[in-house]
Every structure is written in C-alpha cells, then in structure tokens.
What we know:
CATH topology of the largest domain: Aspartate Aminotransferase, domain 2
Number of helices: 17
Helix content: 25-40%
Amino acid sequence: MEQDVIFKIANQDWEFEAIHRLNYETFVEEIPQHGRNPEGRLVDKFHHQNTYVVATRGRELLGMLAVRDVRPFSLDSKLPDLDSHLPPGQSLCEIRLLAIRKNQRNSMIYKGLMQGVRKLFHDNGYDIGVISGLLDRVRLYERMGFLPFGPLVGTEQARFQPMLITPVQFDKYFGDKIDWQSARLDAENTQTDQNFLPGPVKISPIVQKALSRPPVSHRSASFMAFFQKVRQKLCLLNNARHVEIMTGSGTLANDVVAAQLSLLPGKGLVLVNGEFGKRLASNAKGMRLNYEAWDFGWARPIDYAAVERRLEQEPEISWLWTPHCETSTGMVNDIARLADIAHAHGAKLALDCVSSIGAIPVDLSRVYLASGTSGKGLASFAGLAMVYYNHELPPYQNALPRYLDLSYYRENDGVAFTLPTNLVFALDAALDLLDIRGKAETTARMARQVRQELRHEGFSLLVPDELVLDAVVTIEMPEGIDSVQVGDALLRQGIQLSYKSRYLAERNHIQICFMGMNSEQSIRDLVPMLREAMPKVSA
Length: 539
C-alpha cells in the first residue's frame, strides 16, 4: 500500500542529509546560486539556525521550507535597508529554501509545507515572514499569500523580489485547519480551485452535501413527487416539453436518441466536424440506422447552405443529428440555423447537447431529440443521462430494448428502472444553484481574458472566437512541445486541464474548460503558469 505523505519538523539525521542533497539539486543544478561540488550536497550557511518543515514519504524527502529568526537574514545582504521597507516593531522571521522535487510539484505539497510554517508563526508569535522570491516564480508565491515589497535584488543570473507574509495572509490562504502532521496526497484526485476539465468539474459543497443525504426508495411517493419537480426544472432550463432521466453517461443518452431515430422512416444525416460527431455516427451504426455521416473536417464549420441543398435534392432524408457543441474542438454548431433547415424540409433535428446544457442558455423548443448529462455544465456528479423531446410518444409497444425506449419511461412516470436517488438529490441542488445567464456571462468574460492572454503569449487557438463555445478553449501546442508533458507539468502544480483524451493527445492539443464552478480569481495565474511549464518541457 502506498505510504502517506507526512508534513513535519525535520529532526532525524537522514532528513538533514536529504535536505542537503535537495538543497544542492535545487540551488546549484536547477537555480545557479552556488557552485558545483563533487559531493552533490549543499549545507546551508544558516543550517544550524534553520527550522525545517519537510514533506516525506517513508524515507524519501519530497519537499522542504526553512524558517529562521536570527538577524541578519540572507535578505539583509541583498537589501541592506530591509527594515525601512517594513512596519517598525514587528517580530520577523525569514522563510527560505523552498525546494520540492520536480515530480512532486503540486498545490497540495506547497499547501502542506505552508501549513507547517503557519503553525510555527502562531507558536512563536511572528508578525512578518520575509522571503527572496525568485523573479520568475513571483506569481506562484503570490498564490501562496506572499506580497511583494521593495526593489528587485540579486544578480543577473538570479533575480529576486523581496516578499512578505503575515498571520492574516496565512489565515486567509491556509486557515482551513488541515492537520499538516499527516495527510494522504494525490494531485489527480484532489479537488482544487484549479479544475479546468470538461468533467468531472468542481462541485459546490452544497451539491456534495445533497449527494450525501441518506438514500430513499426510488418508488416512494415522496421521491416520485420530488423527481417530477427535477424534471420540470430541466425542461424550464432548456425550453423543452419533456425529459427522461436514466442512470448512465451521455453516451447512453445518445444511444437512446439513436434508438428513437430508428423508428422514423427514411434516412438520416449525421453531421460531423469533430470527435463527438464521429461518435454519433458510431451510435447510429450500432443501432443499424439508415444514415450517412457527412464529415466537414476537423474543427471546420458545417456548411449549412450545402446541407439545405442536400435536403432539397433528397427528400427521403428525414432527420439530422449533430453535436450542439463539438467538445473536442470547442466549436458550436448553430441550432437555430439547423432547425430552420430541418423544418423547411420536413426533417427532424436531433442534437448532442452534453457539453452545452448548463454552460450556455440552450433552446430546445424546435429540436426533436437532445441528449444531456448531469455532469459537465450542470456542475453535478456524472451518472445521470437525459433525453429531451417535444413530441408526444406512442404507447409502449416493446419495439425497442426497454432501457432505450422513451415510451417505457413515460409510462412509468419517468422512473422505469432503479434510480440512484442521491444523484437526483445532487442534480436538484445543482439546478437550484445554476444561474445560467449569469454563468454564461462570467464564462464569456473569463474566456475572453484567457484567449487574449494566450494570443499575447503567442499561443495558437484552434477555433475562431465567433464559432467557439466560451466554456472550451482549445490550444494548439507549438511544434516540438509535447502537450501531454505540458499537461502533466501543470497537473503537478495543481492545475487540471484537458489533455489526456486520445483525440487531443494525437493532435497535440490542450483544452481549458469552464464547465463547473470556476471563479474569475481562479484564472489569474493560469496563462503565466502554462507559459512557465513550456520551457521545462522544451529544454
């Protein structure tokens, strides 16, 4: 079994030896502050005055910070008039030697070390802690609560910004009373403010609390009444007459849509301009539909005029099916235009709305069938699939597998099979929290800022602004830069982006998504940290 990560004050000989070696790796080999030596160890000149907060796993040192309160500080030698930049009469300490092994650099290691320093502050009555912040890491230190003061110091090879932290800043950034003495850490399984995935998204504590309610019978009268209200909320949100909810993913919802399309006469067109259009074609093939997949090219807009001409020439085409938002690229296909074309030629429009519902206002009033899910934009837990529709269903005739037959759900008041009631409780809480127009406005503002900063830094974006869903920003990595390595580097910093999906990795793309509870504060350091991750990979 994997050992816990322990945060503690160093007090063992092996810990001090590991500190000297990590000191050398960081401040000789990575940051050239000191000359090399054949021993591969660097003993700090204030070693015997330092108190070291360390992160260990077994007998492996993962990271360290040193605290020292004996003057002169090392910052005194860089900034001789240090006291003139600080309030008088304060109890000072210096925080030094932040060093974390490259493969362990994630937000939780930083946080655990800073929790230990916070404890030393309170135990010793320090008023201010000062650091020499390496210039290219100032944003990182600011995210840890440090404030810059005074002029830049150091040499051309190593420039520093003096920075300080107070107990108020410690309590603001690290005051959640986590027991820093012992914690199991896993950057990939830790929910942080830096979640920019399309799913799973960051979820409100209110939604998490709803999920933890005691489960109830899905057949009980009270739950059935509650469930109908949840269905009503979904219909009102998306301007649809009906919705059925089933246990499963968005893929299941699309299989249900395919099953319903199999009952229509004529043939269909699946309109493809990305990975999820291709998957709809796969759903159609699996259901043995009479269809043709029309591929417009990766990240290319649908040629609506060509679609209209096709329907004029082939009246046997009775349905169109395409993603609303093509998540693999971020491109939005035009619902209103497609609905106009379909209705003008007596065809029915089906949509994959898994990524758009909950991210932007969606009007399904002229759509025959649409799929959705409880995760992603709705910011609840994955596990509930939804199919929206506006027509009246025929009586159940056992024409389809029951799990895929909307009529069977309709005849059972929506609860045709076992439903995880806790997922419904969580979905209801998420719907109550969702201000779709306010969220869309905030997302658009964040996306504009991020896209502008990315372009300023020279990054290439896949989809033009006028065709993109604000909640998805797709970055084309430069030649010679591996998107997966960049994504891994950011993950170690506690920033979760979308990059591991096969269709992204094959094209060397990274996505920044704003599907969940993203705050404008959370994007402050996003682009700078992406930029910082690049040289580490290309060097």
